[in-house]
């Protein structure tokens, strides 16, 4: 058993254990991957201000996200196909999140269904929806989420049309997958992964197959996905979704101060500054870089969360110190899941928690609520001078 000390260890194990097609699906960004790379490297531009001789006993990372108590303000982001990284992946990740005391957001494009995750957990989780054309299907998703006791809906507003990831096309990753000779050969080498997959019945999109009109089996999924997303999405439509759900709404995928103001106008309970982990508009700014501008525009009006690029507790601290109330991890928990299932997700959360806690201490903070710009050293070029 290797000694696991950082998320990078989990990523390497994930790569070894999981078929290339699914590992690549997680570890890639769109087109040149510039935004994907900068999501992480821009965190590195920010340095931390060390303080000494400050009482650091009795620290706490406890906080709240949308009024819910959290052990640390780090939620598991909605990630499609999580159940292909490891059998029953969404159930395993949700259980790890619940035990750790952080929110879990289930993707519409999950393998395990809303009902299945609810049956295997005891606390409410969040459900993420894409903005789809079919009102009847959307209403049914909201009704199913309500019946499953979900406490918030995350509406993803940055994917009406999909960014292109070269590796997915080359690997034949589609719904259903188109296996190439190379991907079949690779699959054959992933024996523990394959045996677990053979043992589970959860191998297709659980929220869609058997629920969306005309999708009764995996082969009809491809045409459904091509048609389902609504390219005509506007703010009125977002308002309509909010009404259809009737509960707390988190708008995910805001990357511009003007859009953040609009999100406040339509009544979002929280917004997520996110570029979808660099999977949509390649060339867009990293989330951490746009955060200060969004905070200036709406920081006193709505709860602001951030994702994209977080690989450590230090990254979490930097986002919080720049004003975010909460953060999400995508690949960091998927790496844990792909490496070691539920125990791996727990490990990822433990690593991030420890890094966050120790960094807080060395910055001279005991309470996560007191983090602020005074803890950071931010170079002038971080703010940029974009024309
Ligand atoms: C493999 C993968 C699948 C994703 N699927 C979804 C999804 O179904 N819905 C969604 O809103 N975001 C999805 N995202 C974006 C994540 O919710 C989140 O914004 C992103 O992973 C954050 O970046 P990070 O991976 O660098 O932490 C996905 C991300 C990855 C890596």
Question: Could you please describe the fold and organization of this structure?
Answer:
It is built from 17 helices and twelve strands. By secondary structure, the protein is of the alpha/beta class. The strands form three sheets. The chain has an eight-stranded parallel β-sheet with strand order 4-11-10-9-8-7-6-5. Strands 1-12 form a two-stranded antiparallel sheet. Helix 1 (7-17) packs antiparallel against helix 16 (331-362) and helix 5 (89-100) runs parallel beside helix 16. The model has no long low-confidence stretch (mean pLDDT 96). Bound molecules: flavin mononucleotide (FMN). Flavin mononucleotide (FMN) binds at residues 25-26, 39, 77-80, 107, 109, 128, 156, 252, 274, 276-277, 279, 307-310, 329-332. Flavin mononucleotide is lined by residues 25-26, 39, 77-80, 107, 109, 128, 156, 252, 274, 276-277, 279, 307-310, 329-332.
Overall shape:
globular
The level of helicity is 40-55%
In the predicted model, the low-confidence regions spanning at least 5 consecutive residues are none
Q: Structural class of the helix and strand makeup?
A: alpha/beta
- What fraction of residues sit in β-strands? 5-15%
Enumerate how many helices there are, as a single number.
17
H/E series: HHHEEEEHHEHEHEHHHHHEHEHEHEHEH
What integer value in Å does the Rg equal? 20 Å
- Tell me the distance between the termini: 51 Å
- Averaged pLDDT: 96
The overall strand count is: 12
Bound compounds: flavin mononucleotide
Side by side, the strands of the main sheet go 4-11-10-9-8-7-6-5
Main pleated sheet? 8 strands, parallel
